[in-house]
Amino acid sequence: MKLKWRGRLLFTLIIGLIILFFVQNPIGSSLLNIFNIGSSAPIPTELHPVVRERSNQLVQQAADKGIVIVITDDFRSAEDQDRLYEQGRTAAGSIVTHARGGESFHNFGLAIDFAIKTPSENVIWDMNYDGNQNGKSDWTEVVEIAKTLGFEWGGDWVQFKDYPHLQMNFGLTLADLQNGKRPADLSLTADTDEIK
Question: Does one domain contain both 14 and 68?
């Protein structure tokens, strides 16, 4: 009987030490972050560093093809998202989103919107415009570049086509993000050497 009690005590102590290691030790807490284990992460307040870096690469690579683009939106707070959602419903304008606050990758710093800038400085959303006059629409060229950089394009969506929208999900769903998961620290560095 004493042996069983000592075994349980030893087992409890070992489990307690393991938990203490993961919570108190920087290596342990790093492992928890890598696997998205533990308490919910705070909601971001800016664009994710990799998304920002890839956005900059997108602007540069498009410019290399003679296409000037502007990022018209990136991180968007839940309040800003709600205001945008009201557009075309209870506020003037056309419906531009079906996502309320907390229902968009923008709200987690993982999405951008873009537009084309013409030589006369007009910002346009014309998917047929061929400003670099190579016989291919500039919009299509930008989307192709974005996909090579790891972006998902809203124009590929089955239901609500969001043509200016580009996002990176880092293997996470919207439900994951809403439940507090965030891209692992391993994702914080863009592998720019492999991208061209």
Answer: no
Name beta bridge partners: 117.
Answer: 68, 123
Distance CA 30, CA 143 (A): 35
Q: What is the pTM of this model?
A: 0.75
Say whether both 29 and 55 belong to one domain. Answer: no
> Does residue 41 sit within a domain?
no
The boundaries of the domain holding residue 145 are 49-194
- Report how many domains make up the chain: 2
Per-residue confidence (pLDDT) for residue 107, from 0 to 100: 98
What would the two tokens of residue 100 be?
Answer: 């309320």
Which tens digit of pLDDT belongs to each residue from 50-94?
999 999 999 999 999 999 999 999 999 999 999 999 999 999 999
Q: Environment class of residue 176 by beta-carbon count within 10 Å: exposed (0-12), middle (13-18) or buried (19+)?
A: middle
- pLDDT 10s digits, 19-53: 766 555 555 544 444 444 444 788 999 999 999 99
